[in-house]
Specification:
By secondary structure, the protein is an all-alpha fold. The chain has a single domain, classed as Heme oxygenase-like (Heme Oxygenase, Chain A, Up-down Bundle). Helix content is about 75%, strand content about 0%. The protein is globular and about 55 Å long. Bound molecules: pyrroloquinoline quinone.
């Protein structure tokens, strides 16, 4: 099979947006203001596990990658989530959101609310990054191409529907919206440059489909625990 042109390859990646978790019924309820406080707490506490594993996922990609330029760029992601010091960074901003929905830090950090399906799905994502070629690890993160619009909508909808949450509590999302715009484009550029044969391109599309399934499964598990 001949390799796809850049335009076609990008279109096959973007076509996976239909499988993105923006359409999941639990997210639809979150955005409609239909979640109870208990459900919001369950969502925030479980998503914590995703947030806290992202740096390990990114470190796995770096450890598999022989290209200095890619490693240098990818390192920024770890620093973004971990921050430069205690009390800073994306993980910290997620904890702030957890507190705003009524969780205390201890119960988030000890993961007592974490449900097995979320752990399985997130661990599968990290394992994928550890075991697959590094460029496929990068491709699996391309859900970020779809997340900017969703996060913008999330800020508006959460402020409208959950009056006890204020804008500062949503710093995780407001800060992330700008970062994701840059990172989504950067990751796409890396994938286009390094997945050049048809087999590599097909594997990249499959990696992104896998990631959509990871995220979907996370919300399935949260929804089931909430129900
Ligand atoms: O709020 C969201 O809907 C959403 C989605 C995603 C995503 O699509 O994976 C990420 C994020 N947020 C996010 O904040 C984030 O840092 C992030 C990193 C990654 C990744 O796979 O490396 N995805 C996402």
């Amino acid at each position: 099979m001949p390799a796809l042109g850049e335009h076609e390859f990008t279109a096959s990646l973007r076509a996976l947006e239909s499988r993105y978790w923006s359409a999941h019924p639990f997210h639809e309820r979150l955005h409609r203001g239909a979640l109870s406080k208990r459900e919001l707490r369950l969502w925030a506490a479980n998503r914590w596990y995703y947030q806290r594993m992202l740096p390990q996922k990114d470190a796995a990609i770096i450890s598999n990658c022989p290209v200095p330029e890619v490693r240098r760029r990818w390192l920024e992601r770890i620093a973004y989530h971990d921050g430069r010091a205690d009390g800073e960074g994306g993980a910290e901003r997620w904890l702030r959101l957890c507190e705003a929905v009524g969780l205390d830090r201890a119960e988030v950090l000890d993961e007592r609310h974490l449900v097995p399906g979320v752990r399985f799905a997130v661990d599968a994502y990290v394992t994928f990054a550890r075991e697959q070629p590094w460029a496929l690890g990068v491709a699996s993160g391309l859900t970020e191409m779809f997340s900017g619009a969703l996060m913008r909508r999330r800020v508006v909808d959460m402020l409208a529907h959950y009056p006890w949450i204020d804008r500062a509590d949503l710093a995780y999302f407001t800060d992330r919206i700008d970062a994701v715009r840059g990172e989504g484009a950067e990751a796409l550029e890396i994938v286009l440059r390094h997945c050049t044969t048809r087999a590599e391109q097909d594997a990249a599309v499959a990696a992104l489909a896998f990631k959509c399934d990871v995220l979907w499964s996370v919300l399935d598990a949260v929804e089931r625990a909430a129900g």
